[in-house]
């Protein structure tokens, strides 16, 4: 079986996506905490030796470094025969929601949460703009999940793992109380959390935490 090393920091939802996928597939990984808050990923040495794109996470598979969460999730789904699509229609739907998440939901929520909670003195107008966009995206997801148990229908997929990552963090980080504001999303998060082996990011990913500035 492959050996895995995951370069991460605990607040990274993208790191959590890979940690959760491996865990749900019954695999373990060696955690490699990365000092993102200290700026290590912006150093020339780190980019030369770990990831030229300057991003976390990085998954080492038998010593080979892999980057970009979405293609890694798809590779793992194919490798383990889990959380993929069975039919052409399901595979298309999986890609549709995975790409939408990367471009819209995760793209905005990750930045909004980071600015809101983990840096001091964020520009309130920037936060207001991001919140407006995220409200729209959450409304789209809420409508879809009111009609479907999971992203592609009746079973979970890597699209769900991707979309839920940043939404599952504590409400004091992202500022949403989904039980009140988005009940279908809240119920969906519960269905994912009920999967055998599920753990939250802060349970799966140990290490020094970023300073919390949200009020």
Automatic annotation (TrEMBL):
All copies of domain GST C-terminal, residue ranges: 87-215
What the entry lists under InterPro entries is as follows: Glutathione-S-Trfase_C-like (IPR010987), Glutathione-S-Trfase_C_sf (IPR036282), Glutathione_S-Trfase (IPR040079), Glutathione_S-Trfase_N (IPR004045), GST_C (IPR004046), Thioredoxin-like_sf (IPR036249)
SUPFAM superfamilies documented for this protein:
GST C-terminal domain-like (SSF47616), Thioredoxin-like (SSF52833)
Q: Which domain of life is it from?
A: Bacteria
Q: Which residues form the GST N-terminal domain?
A: 2-84
Q: Which Gene3D superfamilies match?
A: 1.20.1050.10, Glutaredoxin (3.40.30.10)
- Which protein are we looking at? Glutathione S-transferase family protein
User: Can you name the source organism?
Assistant: Bradyrhizobium sp. LLZ17
